[in-house]
Amino acid sequence: MKADTRTRLAPRIAAVAGQLQGLVAEGASLPPLATLAREASLSPFHFHRVWRAATGETFGRTLTRLRLSRALQLLAAGETVTQVALAVGYASPQALARTFRQTLGVTPAALRGQPAQATALLDRLQPPPPQIFQPLAVELVEIAPFEVVALRARGAFDDLDDAFGRLFGWAEAVGVVEDIDALIGMPLGDHRDLPPHALQFDAAVRLPGPATLPRPLRRVTITGGRHARVRHVGAYSGLEDMTDRLLAWWWPQSGERLRSAPLHYHFLDDPEQVAEADLRADILLPLED
What we know:
By secondary structure, the chain is α+β, with helices and mostly antiparallel strands. The protein has helices at residues 5-26, 33-39, 47-55, 59-76, 81-87, 93-104, 115-122, 160-173, 239-254, and strands at residues 138-143, 146-154, 182-187, 200-206, 218-222, 225-233, 264-267, 280-286. An 8-stranded antiparallel beta sheet has the order 1-6-8-7-3-4-2-5, with helices on one face. The chain starts with a helix and ends with a strand. The mean pLDDT is 92.
């Protein structure tokens, strides 16, 4: 079955966006991520990435736009800053004011009872224009499940070398460093959206033989099956941009369905030995059989 995924995805994303707008207007709480993902017929593993690829902005940015748009309407009508903050889902007027300053460069108090000024700011809260992506060379591959030794890293994406260095240090200490045959990365968030203290990433090495693992190392199974594979060349920090292209350009016209499993990266070069512009990594996106 190769129906055009784009024609199925667009109305689902639009429906969830409409639901968000209604919830913000009602001052209601957001449903859990799993509920939103299910209503978009997506796996929670892929919801945030597909949302960004389909809309050109993060889910958080969409929610902020909707909340601030509603807040501008209420402020223009003369509601107090405290009333508005609570009505659009902020815990305090200070939180609303902080977001207003960061996003619009103005305080909400300055807009109370000022419909002309509030209306003018609405133009700055429009969705981004459609993105134009260059075609990609994507392969459909079948891979067998395999196990990796993983270390959960927290911090800036550019500091991941330290996590891999710790893995290699352990492997050398126990005499299995020569058995490492792949470097694998499993992103647990998008470094473009999260501050370093909130970003988590599983750095991993593939070892063919068993090994006793001291904490915090752990053994993780990478699911096999069909995958879409695309190669990224350049700084590894550009992997998320390439993933956007895969999900926004290739996947919607592929007719494929995403499997409920995380994507992973296969790093092919060592940043200490290869120039940044020449670094290679494969992105593997799990597909349904």
